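Entry for adenosine-5'-diphosphate complex. Fields follow.
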Amino acid sequence: MPLDFAPARATAHANIALAKYWGKSDLVHNLPAVPSISLTLEELTTETEVCFEPGRQHDDFVLDGRPATRKELQRAVALLDRVRCAARIDHRARVTSHNRFPTAAGLASSASGFAALAAAATRAAGHDVDRTALSALARRSSASAARSIYGGFVELCAGVPGADELAARQIAPPTHWDVRLVVAFTAAGPKSVSSTEAMERSRSTSPFYDAWIEAAPGWSETVKRAIHDRDLEALGVAMEQSTLAFHCCAITSQPSTLYWGPATISALHTVTALRADGVPVWSTMDAGPHVKALCEAEHAPRVRDALTHTPGVLRVLVSTPGSGVEVSP
Ligand code: ADP
């Protein structure tokens, strides 16, 4: 086998949007309709290996130890096709990936998954590119994956329809601010509606979608400034509004996408009660039922304990600011 087609491995981490991404301005190029800002999370990891094999008939994708579903395979093949086209090869690939946290459950497996796949596939094809190009490649599969290429605090601007080069950029390294994201798992198994489908439902049917598009850039600006100033309260208030506003679009779409279960609401109340008790902590959620609480490191044990004792919460994980994608050999 030529050296260029040795297997390559990549590790990427999921991220949590502090200013939320919801809705696309261009479905074909997968461009976000609003700017978003995220924190990469060290403890939520995907490991992916890719090998392009001469003579192989089809791409083969094993995810979390089982054959990928048709839809999962299609999305992975679309990324592999872009890499093959850029690298001018046509070998099919063998892909193995493990998410070290629940897949398709509202914890951003698509972000770490496509970031790791983009990095491993480009290296395996012998077509190394810089981080900006890697981020744009990952973004075409999942906009949030563009952000997981980088560590720490990361910005992805809104896309201009047709402008396919959009990539994320780091605005501060993981060491900038010693915050913690405390994740309260409120349900087991995958979520009922994928993010892609829920977003499209919101865009095409929610009466509040236009208001969301108008308000989201303001929250993003506030979050960016608050990260710069390490102002948790300013960040937290904007983050909670941004979260509730996009869920409002999802809930009011037709058919409604209500990701929340009883334990979601209990966990949100726990965060509010902690704050009333003097603990500086604010909540956020992805498109899914889990609640994530952002606080400074010193308050994380108290937040973890309170969420652990919240009715319906299955388990709690504390995550630190994480690094960007890493690839080997
Ligand atoms: P999540 O909240 O976990 O991001 P989504 O519905 O947004 O849920 O995305 C889940 C989809 O992302 C999966 O169905 C699959 O297509 C893709 N995905 C998840 N993990 C990986 C992975 N490790 N490698 C490639 N694709 C992945």
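NOTE: Residues 151 and 256 are 34 Å apart (CA to CA).
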